[in-house]
Design brief:
94 residues, 0% strand
Length: 94
C-alpha cells in the first residue's frame, strides 16, 4: 500500500513538472512575438507591477495590492521563462 502511494505521489509530481514546463514553453512562444510582448507588458501595467501603491485610500490601496500580487506572479513567470527579456521589460516599464 505504501509503495502504491509513493508511486502516485511521484506521478503527480512528474505531471506537475510537465505542466509547468509546458506553461513556460507557451510563455516563451508568446514572448518571441512583438505582439505577445506588448500584450504581456499591458498585463503587467494593468496589474500595477511597477506602479506606486496609493496610501491615502484604504480600499484603493487594497485593490491595487491585490492586482500587484497577481502581477508579481505573472512577472515571476516571465522572468523564469526569459530573464533577459524580463529585465528589458522592467527597464521599459519603470
Amino acid at each position: 500500500m505504501e509503495q502504491v502511494d509513493q508511486t502516485r505521489r511521484e506521478q503527480k509530481q512528474a505531471e506537475g513538472r510537465t505542466k509547468k514546463e509546458q506553461r513556460m514553453d507557451d510563455l516563451r512562444w508568446i514572448l518571441r512575438d512583438p505582439r505577445g510582448r506588448r500584450y504581456m507588458k499591458g498585463m503587467l501595467t494593468f496589474h500595477a507591477v511597477f506602479a506606486h501603491i496609493p496610501t491615502n485610500n484604504k480600499d484603493e490601496m487594497m485593490k491595487t495590492l491585490g492586482k500587484h500580487e497577481a502581477g508579481k506572479k505573472i512577472y515571476g513567470e516571465i522572468f523564469e521563462a526569459n530573464q533577459g527579456l524580463a529585465l528589458e521589460m522592467f527597464g521599459e516599464l519603470i
